[in-house]
Design brief:
alpha+beta; Nuclear Transport Factor 2, Chain: A; 6-stranded mixed β-sheet; 5 helices; disordered N terminus
Length: 150
Amino acid sequence: MKIFSLFIGLCLYSVSGYGQSLPVLEEVNIRERLAYQLKSWNNGDLKGFMDVYWNHDSLLFITANGVKKGWKSVLESYQKAFPTKEAMGELGFEYYQIRQITPHDAVVSGKWSVKKISQESKKEDTKSGFFTLRFQKIDKQWFIISDHTN
């Protein structure tokens, strides 16, 4: 009976850890993926930016303009909205929370901002909004499988 109680206690302890902060290594891995995304965007590399998204038809991207499904659809939307490096501007992220839900699922919430210099007025224009990203560990690497951005 003691062994069974110990087993149940260990199971409850291990399950209670989820929904908490990620283990340091996993959080570092997700932050590295997001840093790669920022670097790619700021270099005008949309395909590199998209490497962090799951290249699958089930990828879900939700914005105020609607819902896109599938990696190719999301890439085409970005290419249409941001045809040049100048149109892309400089992207920045501020993270509010990175939480592990299960060993292979995590949620990142934060704020994005894009700074652009107007070619006409030479003034800086900054747009910003918020995001919730659902990451999933697939083949030992973290990918965004769902992005809700406004």
